[in-house]
Automatic annotation (TrEMBL):
One Pfam family this sequence matches: Acetyltransf_7
Family matches, as PANTHER family: BLL4206 PROTEIN (PTHR47237:SF2), SLL0310 PROTEIN (PTHR47237)
SUPFAM superfamilies the record matches: Acyl-CoA N-acyltransferases (Nat) (SSF55729)
GO MF assignments: acyltransferase activity, transferring groups other than amino-acyl groups
Protein's recorded name: N-acetyltransferase domain-containing protein
Positions of the N-acetyltransferase domain: 17-151
InterPro entries per the UniProt record, alphabetical: Acyl/Acetyltrans_Enzymes, Acyl_CoA_acyltransferase, GNAT_dom, YitH/HolE_GNAT
Lineage top rank: taxon: Bacteria
């Protein structure tokens, strides 16, 4: 009498991924990943992120870049951005692993990020909570912009850059943004800057941000000032729930997206000036 034998199914081989620090040689492949998502990042934008942030890369077994993520030290807090997992490699836990590794770079500091609709459920599971809505405006400036008269408002001078840098001297993101600014506007009162907005090359054209002021009215005046100097150019702004966007719409821009900014940890005070416009969605 022969004994029957059962054959145990063989488990599929485990996929092998290589996790490592993001390097300069990854920039072109990373730009291809972001382009597939419709993101406008140039090679220079990725290079800036590498210069001021700490990046994580993941490769498949063949050495192809399939995911990225960056942590940006902002002194008292940090922001996460450029978190991408290639569509072909979704559903393998790489997004959670990427976030775990990025969060491990931060320690106990407060974390902020801007969540895509697809990424929001994971971020909530990891302890992030919505804290504000970011409105993305963009388009070509096609109309003459009426600039409100604000006492002390004037174009950025080279001597102002040191004063703006001193607002957050230990924040490499802030320092680099001031350095890269091609144009800017300030409001000065009694020798102190009480309003700042900067414009620099980014993505498809120009990005206005940050926009920092004491009141929404002053923030709108700062934006109008820079828009009036950008006629015919493509401009983008990422604004924190604007109360009144007529200046932007009349200039030729449109609100093309709304996304949630999320925070993990206690709220951080911006200081004497409120941030009405972000540097960009990754940097806050």
């Amino acid at each position: 009498m022969s004994q029957s034998s059962t054959t145990r199914p063989v488990d599929p081989p485990q996929e092998v991924f290589n996790w490592r620090a993001f390097q300069e040689r990854d920039i072109d492949a990373a730009r291809a990943l972001s382009s597939r998502l419709g993101w406008p990042h140039r090679h220079e934008d990725w290079a800036t992120s590498l210069a001021i942030g700490e990046g994580v890369a993941v490769e498949n077994a063949e050495g192809r870049l399939v995911g990225t993520g960056f942590c940006f030290n902002q002194g008292h807090m940090a922001t996460l951005g450029l978190v991408i997992i290639d569509d072909d490699w979704q559903g393998r836990g790489l997004g959670r692993e990427m976030m775990t590794r990025l969060m491990g770079l931060v320690g106990e500091r407060t974390l902020q990020l801007v969540a895509t609709e697809a990424g929001a459920p994971l971020y909530i599971k990891l302890g992030f909570r919505p804290c504000s809505t970011i409105h993305q405006y963009q388009g070509h400036v096609t109309a003459t912009v009426n600039v409100p008269a604000i006492p002390g408002m004037r174009a950025l001078r080279d001597s102002d850059r040191e004063l703006i840098t001193a607002m957050a001297p230990l924040n490499p993101v802030h320092v680099e943004t001031v350095r890269q600014a091609d144009d800017g506007v300030v409001i000065e009162e009694d020798g102190h800057l009480v309003g700042v907005a900067l414009r620099r090359l980014y993505g498809r054209g120009d990005h206005i941000g940050p926009v920092m002021a004491q009141t929404p009215e002053r923030a709108r005046a700062l934006m109008a000032f820079l828009l009036s100097r950008a006629h015919g150019r493509f401009v983008r702004l990422d604004l924190v729930a604007p109360e009144d966007d007529r200046i932007l719409l009349e200039a030729g821009l449109a609100c093309v997206n709304r996304v949630e900014r999320m925070r993990r940890g206690p709220e951080i005070n911006d200081g004497p000036l409120t941030r009405f416009g972000l540097i960009n969605q990754a940097l806050g």
